[in-house]
UBC core domain-containing protein
Amino acid sequence: MLTLASKLKRDDGVKGSRAASAPSDSSRRVSIRDRLLVKEVAELEANLPCTCKVNFPDPNKLHYFQLTVSPDESYYQGGKFLFEVEVPEAYNMVDVVWGLNSLFTDLLNFDDPLNIEAAEHHLRDKEEYRSKVEDYIKRYAR
C-alpha cells in the first residue's frame, strides 16, 4: 500500500548485494524518521478509532495526512470534521489522531473547557447549545 514501505523493503534487500558500491539516486538510504513513520502508519492503521479515516495524499510524505473524524456520540454525532495534519518530528502520529478524535468525545468537558464561551452557553441553555451545534454541523461538517 505505501510506496515508502515498499522502498524500505527494496533498500534492505539491495543492501546486502551492493555492500561495496556507491549508492545511486534511486537507492538512497531512507532516513530514520521515514523508517519510524512507516512503523507509526502501521500502528495507526491497526489502532485507528472506528470514527476516523486517514488519507495520505502523497505516500512518500507520511508525516502529512488528512484525517476525517465522524463522531458517533456526543453533540457532534453525524458531523464530518476534516483535518489536514502535518506531524512534526517530536510527535507520534497515533497520539495526534487520538487527540483530535478525543476533542469530540473524551475531552468534551464543560467543567474545564477548551472553549469557555461554548461551555458557558452549554451551562446556560443546553437545548439551545445542542441546536446551535446541529446547525453548525449541517452548515460546515457534512
